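Task 17 of the worksheet. Students: predict the tertiary structure of the chain below and write it out as structure tokens. Keep your answer in the requested format; marks are given for formatting as well as content.
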Amino acid sequence: MGSERIGSLKKPLRFYPRGARSVKEQGPKKKILDPQCSFLQNWNKIFMLVCVLAVAIDPLFFYIPWVNGTDKDKCLDLDHKMEAAACVLRTFIDVVYILRIAFQFRTGFIAPSSRVFGRGELVEDPKVIAKKYLTSHFIVDILAILPLPQVFFPCFVNLH
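Model answer:
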């Protein structure tokens, strides 16, 4: 019993100080990102700015239709320049969001059971990371990038 305790002390601990490493190799070609690395911290700031930009761009889709004509001859028309600009900007934002989803599948997380004291143990198994992400925020992220404004809004306006 005493020798088991001494043997367990020889095993290296898997606690990493903040910023000590940013990428861990997991077999060939598989990299797991540390959630505390500076790259992901900066990426999250950029992503937050893009989200604010998305909130500002979505109302542009309401300015695409406009009334063209005089009092007798009014017709609903589309502002094609505004439509193109809004669709291109929204598509760019969706691409950034898809990159975020890809990063989520490669970002490790701190195991809840090891959060008692200190930083805890970083989970680096890609299958465990994917399972956690798929069961938590994946559906919301997919719904967020559906191209609803780009596809459905011009279709409804063209029904006149």
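Marker's comment: Helices lie at 2-10, 38-57, 80-105, 126-134, 138-144, 148-157. Strands lie at 23-25, 31-33, 65-68, 75-78, 109-110, 122-123.
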